[in-house]
Amino acid sequence: MFRELEQKKKIIHTSILILILVQNSGTKGVQYASNISQLLKTITNLHVSLAKPIMKTAVIALCKLVELLKGIEHTYHRNYMSISESINHVVQYLTFRILTIVGATKKSLIQDKHYSEKHLDILSSLVLVEKVLNGPGTKERRLIARLALSAANQIRIFREDELSALNSLLYKLDMMRNLLTLFMFSALHDCLLAIDRSKHSLSTDVLKECFKNEIFIYFEKQVLKPLCQEVETNLRLHVHSHLQLDDRNPFRGAIYDCSPFLTLKPLRFFNNYINIKAYVEHYLNQTFYNLTTVALHDWKTYGEMRSLARFKYGIVTVEDHLPSQTLEQGLDVLEIMRNINIFVSKYLYNLNNQIFVEQSSNNKHLNTINIRHVANSIRTHGIGIMNTTVNFTYQFLRKEFLIFSQFMFDEHIKSRLMKDFRFFRENKVQLDQKYSYERADKFNKGIRKLGLAADGKSYLDQFRMLISHIGNAMGYVRMIRSGGLHCCSNAIRFIPDLEDIVEFKELCTQDNLSNVSTEAGAQLDHVIDNLVRNFTEGTEYFKLLVDVFAPSFRDSVNMHLRNFYIIVPPLTINFVEHSITCKEKLSKKNKVGAAFTDDGFAMGIAYILNLLDQCEMFDSLHWFQSVQEKCIQDKMHVKKQKSLTSKDDEKLQQAMTLTARRLDLHQQFIK
């Protein structure tokens, strides 16, 4: 019975307080305190600025103002529990009064017979006011409400008394929202008075320290750490927005704005201050430094996150000054990854030896990249560099495939491919199911009539180079994968049997070793497990890069790619002619452009045929059998011509010999 009376008494007290707050503006105390504080600061600063002494009567008046100011502060602190419980009700009441005025004005505007487009803009502004006030009264929402009301009142739709009431209510709403933050840590500080009076502890200082630590740990767990993680996640998603991420549409899912927390002034926490912004800055500094140390190849990503943090949240972080690449001799693997578009155009891939060779130049020594070079870099930076390489390759391929699609969409190319497709389909029997070499050669030569680039290359030359670049990128991924296996094999060679691995944690537990030794054994088990998994299972990066592009390539939207396999024969002829020219330059004085290998083209063709699921279609052309038959026929023809030619005609004999050698080269490249 006594408890029920106490609850009813508390409810009545709260209701009376709400009524007082609402009827007496609720913010008069804060207004008085603000006016008194401003007056005190103005008078004292004026006397200091003008170097004038303060009269005795003025000093007495200032002291009375200070007493009033502290009295108001004491009144609020004494009733902070009741005020904190009542503020939300007051805010709801003030919001209700604003919405009532806005709703009545909107209703009269809709019923107006002289309705126009201008009224539609005003009505939209009023609807916006209703929407922003039907939610949490954040600073941004209140600002939008003020702007919308100003836009709506362009033609004086509010009466003078309504406009005055709206301004007054919005001012009170601002004061109520700001008032709530004053009591947050003040309430906790007042608990120290009760701790000082405790008798069950020998030292109240120890009890105070435990209380402070407990409150701070809880505040850190519930507010500070989640805030740091949210800021880091937002920065990371923003930097990686070019990838295929989850939907970040604020109209479909909740996206939290961390800016209000970071703009708060330092909070007084007992005898200390908590600076939320400085806490987040320290967290980001530590995170960026540690992660960059583990994976140097991600330095650029964290550099972008630093810049974005300054621009988006005003967070200033410290530069880590770590090296951005490995300091060994030779071309840096990290630099290749960041500039893969330049690398694939300057280096040529050799499929058998798994090396990249720089294109020949007269000015410098040729650089090479091999598996051992890659394995050393992976050993330095960790296995994570393999996944990062695939990410960079994926971004590069996206751009290259856009150009690839544009070429295949060209009307001249589409019409020629359709024409050749119909010819092959209608003459299969006569051609013995083999695609005509003459038809492919005609395509290769005829496309030059469409125009040449400034360097003399045709459109088919440029398309062949594009495919070679795509193949070089895939070759680099293959080399990275092989280097990773090489690195893992070197690290795992000390494990006697991969099928029977001993658990060191269990052995430490059985022998009753210390906790430190048991934890060290668990860490060793984790490292061995990672090495075994990476060595035995690995990741099929080729399959990943096929699976990510294949659905869009095979989609009905990209029907213009369905005849790609028809253009492969002209491309192979173009590639063979280019390769022979590059190989012949090796014996010349000017070796610019000379090359003895370029397997990127074959890798690119195989990859794209796999993406489009056209391997069987290309096999149905029996293209390589057609080329072999063409080479044999040409060699027989040359041999016959050579036998009919007089042996005394040396020039003609030499020409026949050179022709035979060139045919052998063609046949060798086709094989």
From TrEMBL:
Classification via InterPro entries: WASH-4_N (IPR028191), WASH-7_C (IPR028283), WASH-7_central (IPR028282), WASH7 (IPR027307)
Domain WASH complex subunit 7 central: 183-499
Domain WASH complex subunit 4 N-terminal: 28-179
GO biological process terms held by the UniProt record: endosomal transport; endosome organization
One GO term describing the cellular component: endosome
Protein name, per record: WASH complex subunit 7
Domain WASH complex subunit 7 C-terminal positions: 518-668
Source organism: Timema genevievae
